[in-house]
Structure formats: structure tokens, C-alpha cells
Design a protein that fits this description.
With about 500 residues, the chain is an alpha/beta fold. The chain is built from 15 helices and 14 strands. It has helices spanning about 5-10, 30-35, 40-45, 55-75, 120-130, 140-145, 165-175, 180-185, 190-230, 240-255, 290-300, 300-320, 340-355, 395-435, 450-460; strands at about 85-90, 110-115, 230-235, 270-275, 275-280, 285, 325-330, 370-375, 380, 390, 440, 470-475, 480, 485-490. The protein has a four-stranded mixed beta sheet, with no helix packed on it. The protein starts with a helix and ends in a 5-residue tail after the last strand. The relative contact order is 0.09.
Length: about 500
């Protein structure tokens, strides 16, 4: 499950009495941290900032960094993590606005803090306290972490039953019902035609003002790809045009100052992200906060990174041979990128578990199917897009049985995925042409199943106010800083 989906599920449960687990000596797990942070997610979730795109993006980016921080703490044998400074815009989720901090005119407050904690429990407490949110529901967790006699015996599975409170609970306590909050947010959403009438002029003005930056970005990207022999240049986040131009200009200056160092980039794809290195897809990551010295050091290490990437490809081939021809893939998700070192470690560990088992699978019985290895997953699953989701520590015999029983279903979902992708590409092209759009894109979190009906409805509506605009399908209404017009995929007519 992606971080965004997890948060949407989390805020649907009461923000006061979050369900708690029995905590072992090791402290909170990732899932337990999500439960404990529900009041925080309810206060900062980007879905509640649809009319405030700047604040929404700040919260999105900070949530990704917080998620990465927590993931690093929950990894086996995790090393000390770097201090991380975060900024959030926090909604007042109390019945009465009695917060000591002064609220901004928009109705929420800005909170900044630095994480320097070494365990998940301390991190959760730090986040809640920094945002002036209640930690009463954490008392049981803190006590469990401090008193080892109450820990679960080794190998035991903690019992967990999520609580869905009756509506009378919220009436009696005065707390707000998260379900009603989300429903209300949907009800107050304007219709597409009304929103376009109110915002089309602003989007046109911003888009016109940003056109020189768009042209400059295209020129810089084309020039760098040609001069450095790059396959592509990509971005982890939706930074604005001005920000992206600055990043490319910085790389251009480095190319002039140290041309020898950049020769190692030939044939690679560059990904601007939060950290420098190489990710599981083999992209060279340039940390946007790093100076040229760090980038130069990274370029010098590229031969060793290429060697490690080749080893991961060999491991994937060996795993495929052991598992009937199923192909190991890596799916880039929202949130922190997966470093190549972590990907190799997961593959190596999984391969060593498979070797002594000698599973009896026909060499080509799973040919054409795909799977992902997920270190943080606890159970085997089949994604709606057709790939198997396999925990790195799963039982090989259970894995074989799952493959054999689910192979046909996986093939059907694969075919359906291919059909959806082709259908989406066709309807997007039709929209751009028939509606005279300057461009049509979507957020990574919008699926093909959402994009296709959205585009069909746009073709039926045929609003002339969208002509010449850059349209982006998202989960909220917004006019971005460069004039991109965001509309929710399930917009109202």
C-alpha cells in the first residue's frame, strides 16, 4: 500500500483513541507508528488543503520525508539516521480553537521541528508533541515499551482489531467524526464549470508568465542530454519550472567546471531527488540540497554503482530461474526512493532463502508474469495491476503454492492492465486534440481506472474555458504556480 493510501485509511479512524498493539521490546513497528500518528495525519493530510496548493505541497513533501525517516528506523540493523528538519501546516481539529499558537488567516498554523530521535516510539512522540497534539493514547505504548514483562513472547503474533466508533460517540464526546469531515469536504466542492469560471483567468495569466521558463527548461534539458549523453532527466517531485531550471543550470555550470567528472554520466538517466546516489531502477540521483562537491564524488563512484546494479540484474535472473520464469521488477512509488544498496540487499537475502528449498516449479510455468520484493510487507498478495507482491522473508513453500493458485488470475490482470494503459493513452490524446489543451497530465496517485472515465466526461462536457491550458488530473482543485490547472478526477458536473 502506498503512503498516500495508508494515510487515507488512517484518518478514517478516530483521532483521539487510536487502536494500539502490544509492543515488544524493540518498540513500535511501522504499522503501529501509523496507528499512533492518526491524530497527526488527520491534522496535516494534504487532502484537506485542496484550496491551498502551497501548503498542500509542503505537507506532501514533509510527509514523504517523515515516512522515509520512520522506514529507516524500522529496517533491521538500521544505522543512525541523519537529523531531518520538517515543516507542516497543521489544521485545528478540536471543537474549539483553543490552541496557544497563533493561527494563520487561512485557519491553520505552521510548525517546524527537527527529528533527531533514534527509535520509532520517540519519533512518534516528538511529532505529536511538536504539533501540540494529544499523546494520551500513547500512554499504553510508552508503558509497554518501558516494561519488558508485558512484551509479547518471541514468535507470537499480536492481536489487532481496528475500532469503528458509533456516531453517538462523537455526539457525546464532542470530537469530530473523520468520515463526516471527508464527506463535508466532498459536498462543498464546486462544480467544474463554476470553478473554471472563477479560476481560468488566473491559470491563463500564470501559464503565460511561465512560458519563458518552460521554453528555457526544454532547452536546458535537451542541451544537457545531448552534451552529456544522458538517456533522460527526471524529477522525483513536482517542483515548479523556476526550481527545475535552477537545478539544470547548476548541472550545466558543473559540466563547464569539471567536464571530466561528468563523462561517467553517459548512458544514464538523472533523477533529481532528496538524496544523492543510485536508485533501484539504475537512475543517478542528484540530491537537490547537495553541493557540487557531493555530486562530483557521486560521479566518481558511478563505476562501482554500475557494478552493483549489474549484480542486482544477475540476482533477478537467478531468482527468475528458481521461480518458474517470473520476472522480478521494481515499481517506483510515491514517497522515498529505494536506494540501490537496499534493493541489492533485499534481493540477496531472498535468493539465499530460496536456494536450499529447490521448489518444484516448471521452468516456464510463470513466464510473462512479474513480482515485486517488499521488505516491509508481511503477507503475500496480488496487485490489481497483475504483479505479485512478495515479502522478502516469506516462506518459499507458501510462495510456490500461491504462485500456482494465482497464476491465471495474474495473467488476466496483466492483460487488463495492458488494455487500460492503451485505452488511457488513446483517450488522453483525444482530449488534448478535441479540447485544444496545451497539455494533459496526471498525478502519479491517479490510476488508469480513474483517468479514463475522467477524460471521457471531459470530452462530453467540452468546456471552452479549458482551451489552451495545461490540465493536470489530481485529487483536488488548484491553480499551480506555473499555471497548471489541477482538477479532481471525480469532478462534479
Amino acid at each position: 500500500m502506498s503512503m498516500t493510501s495508508m494515510l487515507r485509511c488512517a484518518i478514517r479512524v478516530d483521532n483521539k483513541y487510536a487502536a494500539t498493539h502490544i509492543i515488544q521490546k524493540r518498540g513500535l513497528s511501522g504499522a503501529e507508528a501509523i496507528n499512533a500518528l492518526r491524530p497527526f495525519y488527520f491534522a496535516v493530510h494534504p487532502d484537506f488543503f485542496g484550496q491551498h496548493p502551497k501548503e498542500r505541497e509542503v505537507n506532501e513533501n514533509s510527509l514523504k520525508r517523515l515516512n522515509g525517516y520512520l522506514e529507516n528506523l524500522t529496517k533491521p540493523g538500521a544505522r543512525s539516521v541523519k537529523p531531518t528538519k520538517l515543516t507542516f501546516y497543521v489544521r485545528d481539529t478540536k471543537a474549539k480553537a483553543d490552541m496557544e499558537q497563533e493561527l494563520l488567516p487561512s485557519g491553520f498554523r505552521s510548525v517546524s521541528f527537527t527529528l533527531q530521535t533514534k527509535d520509532v516510539l520517540s519519533t512518534v512522540l516528538n511529532v505529536l508533541q511538536s504539533c501540540s497534539l494529544s499523546v494520551e493514547h500513547m500512554q499504553g505504548l510508552k508503558a509497554s515499551g518501558q516494561h519488558s514483562p508485558s512484551a509479547v513472547p518471541s514468535g507470537a503474533t499480536p492481536f489487532y482489531r481496528p475500532i469503528k466508533w458509533d456516531k453517538s460517540y462523537y455526539t457525546f464526546t464532542g470530537f469530530r467524526d473523520p468520515e463526516e469531515e471527508l464527506q463535508h469536504a466532498k459536498k462543498v466542492e464546486p462544480s467544474l464549470s463554476l470553478w473554471l469560471r472563477n479560476n481560468e483567468a488566473e491559470a491563463s495569466r500564470k501559464q503565460k508568465a511561465s512560458q519563458p521558463r518552460r521554453d528555457e527548461l526544454h532547452r536546458l534539458k535537451t542541451e544537457l542530454c545531448q552534451n552529456l549523453g544522458l538517456t533522460d532527466i527526471r524529477w522525483q517531485r513536482s517542483w515548479g519550472m523556476a526550481h527545475r531550471c535552477c537545478q539544470l543550470q547548476s548541472l550545466s555550470r558543473l559540466a563547464l567546471q569539471s567536464p571530466e567528472a561528468l563523462r561517467q554520466l553517459r548512458g544514464h538517466t538523472i533523477l533529481y531527488s532528496d538524496q544523492s546516489g543510485m536508485n533501484a531502477s539504475g537512475y543517478v540521483m542528484l540530491g537537490t540540497m547537495d553541493v557540487h562537491h557531493h555530486w562530483t564524488k557521486l560521479f566518481e563512484r558511478l563505476p562501482s554503482y554500475r557494478s552493483l546494479f549489474q549484480q542486482t540484474e544477475w540476482l533477478k535472473e537467478r531468482i527468475s530461474l528458481l521461480l518458474g520464469g517470473v520476472q522480478v521488477i521494481h515499481v517506483e512509488r510515491l514517497g522515498p526512493v529505494l536506494p540501490l544498496e537496499d534493493h541489492y540487499s533485499t534481493l540477496s537475502h531472498f535468493h539465499k532463502r530460496l536456494l536450499p528449498q529447490r521448489l518444484t516449479l516448471h521452468p516456464r510455468s510463470l513466464q510473462g508474469l512479474t513480482m515485486t520484493l517488499e521488505s516491509g510487507r508481511s503477507s503475500i498478495g496480488l496487485h490489481e495491476m497483475g504483479h505479485f507482491m512478495i515479502p522478502a522473508i516469506c516462506d518459499p513453500v507458501q510462495l510456490r503454492n500461491f504462485f500456482q493458485t494465482q497464476a491465471n488470475e495474474a495473467r488476466q490482470r496483466h492483460r487488463r492492465r495492458d488494455q487500460l494503459e492503451a485505452e488511457e493513452e488513446d483517450v488522453v490524446d483525444t482530449c488534448v486534440k478535441d479540447l485544444s489543451l496545451a497539455g494533459l497530465s496526471k498525478e502519479p496517485s491517479v490510476s488508469s481506472r480513474q483517468m479514463i472515465p475522467c477524460c471521457r466526461r471531459l470530452l462530453e462536457d467540452r468546456s471552452p474555458l479549458m482551451q489552451g491550458l495545461q490540465l493536470r488530473i489530481s485529487h483536488f482543485y488548484s491553480v499551480m504556480q506555473d499555471g497548471d490547472l489541477c482538477i479532481p478526477w471525480d469532478w462534479k458536473g
